[in-house]
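Structure first, sequence second, as always.
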């Protein structure tokens, strides 16, 4: 067992060898006995084996081998989780078991996602967000994993990020930096590159923008990252300009006005953007007024 463990550590540069030796180590541990100490060692080996197996799957170019390895990850996770529950049922269970379970959840989530098991991953995600040991960081990680190719679960990622956002807002004090990153991810999912023809996506993004703005405007959250405010401002502006290019002046004014409100919260970057944005916004507003005047004149 010790030799297998040491070989796994020595060959950590190779995920395939690491997977093989940690799996062997787990098998040797299972032969020693079923006491808590042996089970804990077996659990640790299986967690390490699952991690290495997952990394091997990520690196594989051959799709058939990749899928087979992902199935192995699920089997390793299942075996490890069974052992975890055996340990948790004893008086000798430790807090380290909780961290192991978090890792197992992430490994299982990624494997299911990359295997394309939509129904299973939806159910699994729903269970995870209500689990006692899940935390906001785990949910954020799952949201990112859900968008990794080849299977990108956009709707699921948005659901998970929405949960993460709600958890952030309920914390005291709010971790504004992490909260800003969740807003960033949600808005990016809703708008993409900004050339968004999806009115539902724009409406969703609009709500997130205003939610973020309310936090930015709060006197107690002056530490909202300026680069994130700049990103929000630019994203809103580009969305408005896209509307301008497609003749949707009302949409243009709405989004550009939001961008101007965000501009007011910049510090070091404000002078770089304000003159050009102000001039263009006045031009757009004037054109909007001219259009309204023409519409009035056309009325019988």
């Amino acid at each position: 067992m010790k030799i297998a463990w040491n070989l796994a550590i020595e060959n950590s540069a190779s995920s395939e060898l690491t997977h093989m030796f940690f799996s062997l180590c787990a098998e040797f541990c299972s032969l020693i006995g079923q006491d808590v100490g042996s089970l804990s060692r077996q659990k640790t080996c299986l967690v390490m084996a699952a991690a290495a197996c997952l990394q091997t799957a990520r690196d594989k170019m051959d799709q058939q081998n990749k899928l087979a390895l992902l199935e192995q990850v699920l089997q390793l996770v299942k075996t490890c989780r069974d052992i975890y529950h055996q340990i948790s049922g004893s008086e000798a269970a430790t807090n380290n078991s909780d961290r192991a379970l978090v890792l197992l959840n992430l490994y299982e989530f990624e494997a299911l996602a990359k295997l394309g098991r939509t129904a299973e991953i939806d159910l699994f995600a729903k269970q995870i967000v209500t689990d006692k040991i899940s935390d906001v960081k785990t949910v954020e990680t799952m949201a990112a994993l859900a968008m990794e190719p080849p299977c990108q679960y956009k709707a699921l990622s948005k659901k998970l990020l929405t949960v993460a956002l709600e958890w952030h807002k309920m914390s005291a004090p709010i971790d504004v930096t992490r909260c800003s990153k969740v807003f960033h991810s949600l808005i990016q999912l809703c708008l993409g590159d900004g050339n968004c023809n999806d009115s539902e996506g724009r409406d969703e993004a609009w709500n997130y923008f205003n939610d973020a703005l309310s936090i930015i405007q709060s006197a107690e959250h002056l530490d909202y990252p300026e680069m994130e405010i700049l990103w929000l401002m630019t994203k809103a502006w580009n969305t408005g300009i896209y509307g301008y290019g497609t003749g949707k002046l009302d949409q243009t004014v709405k989004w550009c006005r939001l961008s101007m409100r965000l501009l007011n919260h910049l510090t070091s970057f404000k002078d770089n953007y304000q003159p050009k944005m102000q001039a263009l916004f006045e031009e757009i507003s004037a054109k909007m007024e001219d259009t309204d005047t023409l519409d009035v004149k056309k009325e019988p």
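Margin note: The chain has 13 helices and no strands.
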